[in-house]
Amino acid sequence: MDPTEFIQRLSSFSEEWTLVALAGLPGSGKSTLARAVADLIPHAVVIPMDGYHLPRAVLSAGDLARRGAPHTFDAAALHRDLTQLRRDRCGMFPDFDHATQDPQTGAIEVTSEHRWILVEGLYLLLKSWQLEPLFDHAFFLDTPLDLAMERTAQRHVSCGLCDSLEKAHTRVETNDRPNAELILRDGCRDRAERLE
To answer: Residue 15 and residue 131: Cα distance in Å, rounded?
Structure first.
């Protein structure tokens, strides 16, 4: 989606302070759209759900192979931090360090200067995580499944997670596609305003 179109939607909100969920499948463009909006608007800030990955050191070999599945995130910490953010309208939040492949504590600061807080991630609308009531508005980037999976495979190669496209496609089929199918089965797409 064109970030300027999304900014127009955000600008139509009547709230002076808005907590927005930006969800979607792996490879749907959530991070790209959120970063583009924050780059264009000084009073927008992005909190990536990826900052709530459990550290690699605490994951078993099986969990590392499925990293990115819901159980490899600290959903309770995300819920706690977003609840506190709604109350205080400021706080410190983790980011994801792609060099170490681990979360980076306290890397993102939300201040009273920020009007639009964009939280982006796969599972923000998952029923079992119970985050939906914390958001003022929720959006789902509605990207066709196969296109999203191809983008994800390309990203695995470009970021160094896989050293060949063949290995990237294997990882997609054994990890990312099951995660995407879970999101669709759970009805996340239907509980949000869709963006194409």
So the answer is: 19
> Is there a domain that residue 148 lies in?
no
Closest CA relative to residue 155, chosen from 67, 64, 11, 32: 32
* Residue 32, in any domain of the structure: yes
Tally of domains within the chain = 1
Q: For residue 24, what are the domain limits? A: 3-142+187-195
Q: Where are the alpha helices (DSSP H) in 94-144?
A: none
pTM of the model: 0.93
Structure-derived torsion over alpha carbons of residues 42, 119, 78, 17, reported in degrees to the nearest 10? 60
Enter the tokens of residue 76: 């309770």
> How high is the pLDDT of residue 98?
76
Per-residue model confidence as pLDDT tens digits over 140-149: 999 999 999 9
| CATH (domain of 121) | 3.40.50.300
Distance CA 49, CA 82 (A): 11
Structure tokens, 77: 């910490």
Rounded to 10 deg, the angle between the 3-11 and 30-40 helix axes is 70
- pLDDT tens per residue, range 33-76: 999 999 999 899 999 999 999 999 999 999 998 999 999 999 99
Q: What is the pairing mode between strands 193-195 and 44-48? A: unpaired
Q: How far apart are CA 54 and CA 87, in angstroms?
A: 25
